[in-house]
Known about the structure:
By secondary structure, the chain is mainly beta. It is 6% helix and 45% strand.
Amino acid sequence: MKGSPITTHVLDLVSGMPGAGIPVALERKTETEGWHVVAEGTTDADGRVGDLMSPEEAFLSGHYRLIFDTESYFAHRNADAFFQQITISFVVKDATEHYHVPLLLSAFGYTTYRGS
Length: 116
């Protein structure tokens, strides 16, 4: 597999522009230790984080979550926001597949889906 097995991008639905500069953490849940950080990144000018995990890292099936620091994004734009942090939890059943998890964002709502 080339590139990170888990990728994301953010689109600001109000401006119609990419959500650039948003800190993102990727966590994995283990039976013994609970949630732990696997990787961290920040969305680029195109709103993407394509390198959360290096191809050399072990990618296992299990429970993962992406945590987006939307508070800093909206504060930088002097905008009020209801959701200060957005957590998207999902299950990886087949670690040979690629998982793309986009976030469509506004100050008072969001949506997500499994992309390609």
